[in-house]
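Supplementary notes for students who missed Thursday's class. We covered one full example, reproduced here. Read the sequence, then the structure, then the short commentary at the end.
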Amino acid sequence: MNAEERNFALYENFQKVNAIAPEFFEQYEVKRGLRNPDGTGVIAGITNIANVHGYVVSDGVKTPDEGQLRYRGYDLYDLLEDDSPERRFSFEEVCYLLLMGELPTKDQLDRFVSVLDSERELPDGFTASLIMRNTPPDIMNILARSILLLYAFDEDAEDRSAHHEIHTAISLISRVPRIMVLAYYAQRAKYYNESMIMHRFIPGQSTAETILSMLRPDRQFTADEARMLDVMLCLHAEHGGGNNSTFTTRVVTSADTDAYSTYAAAIGSLKGHKHGGANHQVLAMQKEIKANVQDWSDEGQVADYLAKIVNKEAYDRTGLVYGMGHAVYTVSDPRAVICKKFAERLAVGTEYEAEFELLKSVERLAPEVILKEKGTKKDMCANVDMYSGFVYSMMGIPEDLFTPLFACARMSGWAAHRFEEIVSGKRIIRPAYKTTHSGKRPYESIEKR
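Structure (token representation):
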């Protein structure tokens, strides 16, 4: 215990000072996490941007249903169903749809891509003085700091007009992927004494191509890899107003702050282990299963180890099977379905095929194991994190970039929700909190305490 801890009693009383008796939540009918008793979300707003569907509530009964994710009314399956070689990239089109409300024509998309391309350049000296200087160990913090610092290079940063809001959003959608790769190499140089590779972006490349081209030391990648990364960006671009980082975007926007502060706050939320950072838990759990199950093709062995996890005897002793279950989806998560399909395409016939089959076994067996070990049947499906880390690993993308890639994709969704909040929200978001102090406490002078 250091001197500060010895002299500051709050360290000793942290749990006591901040604890609230569980009965208060029941007494005042507080919906923790803005969740109803049946797990459904409390309706906190209206949106035209996305619909996340996973169950049907009829006469007060919640019934599981096939998952659906729609962007501006368009089903995600429809947006990504075209696998033809001519249809190589979709992310830029998805960004346009989220920001502008409609799917673009060929001419509109070409103009949009041209604007994105023109915005990738960073201010003079930004990389050397702001990304490489005092580099923190987590890339998400570098992204948040970089976005806040870009405020200083915008003479109209406090402008809330539609023109400036759209320009700022497009600028960040274009720049954040580039900042991410530069930040990754700055991190590796500072903390791991590795070489710092600083490739220039290549004009005319898509967002997915730009990321791979800047990240790979030899700048080489296959068309399948670029298409897979493009699909992953599409899957993470938007997920309704209720997810934590998008709700953060709404809350901060409602206070009438600038765009840069808003998006930095959203990144802070996404970094959390219960949100975008959850993919690290999934990957770590999968690594432990691979290390401890001798025969990956033996479902009995896989089920036995899952039972240890469920019974808090393995992995992090929480009893959670990471990658399984979602707050909304019950029967299926469309993002996981699409991700799994493309993952199989990349894995079949390669060294990763056995691992892919193992993940399929985990997905299939987990609900059965939970029912057997706990005696409870849960409406549970694989979520997108079950396969996303595997896909990134197949492409050689470092784990430190998993959540930052999520942020690169979600910038367009956050921007769309910020726009909607500016136009339609009108009031600062301020829910109520009930105090546990029912009366006034008598004050005593410091000499009498």
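Commentary. Residues 287 and 315 are 10 Å apart (CA to CA). The chain has a mean pLDDT of 93. If anything here is unclear, bring it to office hours.
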